Amino acid sequence: MPAALSVLAVIGSIHLLAQLLGSALVADITQVLLMPLLAAALWRGTRPPRDTLVRLTLLALGFSWLGDTIPRFLDGDPGFLGMLGSFLGAQLVYPIAFWPRWRRSLLVRPLAVLPYLLVAAAVVVLSAPGAGVLLPAVMVYAGVLCVMALLATGLGRLGGLGGAMFIVSDSLIALDAFGTLTLPAHSVWVMATYLAAQVMLVLAVRGRIPPAAGGAQGGTS
Q1: Domain coordinates of the chain in residue numbers?
Q2: At CA 37, angle to CA 70 and CA 184, rounded to 5?
Q3: Which residue ranges run through the membrane (predicted)?
Q4: Residue from 54, 87, 92 nearest 205 by CA
Q5: Nearest alpha carbon to residue 167 among 186, 190, 188
Q6: Taking the model in full, what pTM does it have?
């Protein structure tokens, strides 16, 4: 396992344990380290000149890092909106990165698209009573997330799983934020699925790129 991924596994485990035990300080510190470590794993696992897929994935990880970091400094609605805007940025960049492979994705199979649309619609409907003026933003985000997850299937099985896991993670965030559903240890489930989604997407991207000289190749589909 590449060094950056090994460190990520350790920091991610510490973060999830901190979430479970309610150690806010440790959880905050470790959360802001996750995306930089994952970006390092992608950078180290690919060789120059890095193509558009890699560069845009790095940009999406940057937006995700902002989404992880902003709520550490802003409370309430400003923090939530900052997080939502940052993750929306990531979910807009990912589809652009994945678009060249759309013919390999589920978008060419209309019936396979239906479950994604149904899940997105269900989350919007369940969130609507508590979303208030944020409902349009939730609808836009759900639509963009659905497109990202579908296009991620063009990277292979691992990419498809990563996209689906992102839907699970962000759905849990929305359902909790708008008072619809809160699971026991909810934040642990959110972060576990979020981290798994990001790792699978990065490994899927690495699986489509020739490895860096002397570096181990990431997961394949």
Answers
A1: 3-206
A2: 60
A3: 80-99, 106-127, 133-151, 158-181, 187-205
A4: 54
A5: 190
A6: 0.90
Identity of the residue numbered 23:
S
Quickly count: other Cβ atoms within 10 Å of residue 219's Cβ. 16
Q: With the CA atoms of 101, 102, 103 and 108 taken in that order, what torsion angle do they form, in degrees rounded to the nearest 10?
A: 160
Is the separation of the CB atoms in 170 and 121 below 8 Å? no
Angle 88-32-37 from CA coordinates, rounded to 5°: 95
The residue type found at 101 is R
Q: Which two tokens stand for residue 27?
A: 């959880």
Residue 140 token pair = 């836009």
- The helix or strand, by DSSP H or E, that contains position 91, with its residue range, turns out to be helix 76-98
pLDDT tens-digit map of 1-17: 578 899 999 999 999 99
For the segment 82-140, what is each residue's pLDDT rounded down to a tens digit? Answer: 998 999 999 999 999 999 999 999 999 999 999 999 999 999 999 999 999 999 999 99
170, 128 Cβ separation under 8 angstroms: no
Place of tokens 């019936």: 111
